[in-house]
Sequence to fold (99 residues):
Amino acid sequence: MDSVEAVLTWSIPGGVLAMVAVGTVELARSKRRGRAGAAPLTSTYVNEFTALFYGTKRTELDHRDSTSMMREEDAQGERPWLGEDLERGIVLPRRRTED
Fold:
């Protein structure tokens, strides 16, 4: 087995082992600091590794990136803060009601 063949043969298993090692270190570090959530480097690696084999994953990642850049509108299910009184021609702020 020549060196190029050995590198190509062990690149995927080596990458998976490196991902598990980095994920373990990131989880240990986040537990020590008391932060919750996914490990960012490992999740990025898993997403890119999956996109290498599945073309639709690349489309999903691109869509997620473009969606995260869009601003959120007020029409997210909550009533707007301002109410209009068209008869008197004024705008009235509403009180916030905590549910």
Observations:
- The chain has a mean pLDDT of 78.
- The beta strands are 82-85, 90-93.
- Helices lie at 3-33, 40-53, 55-69.
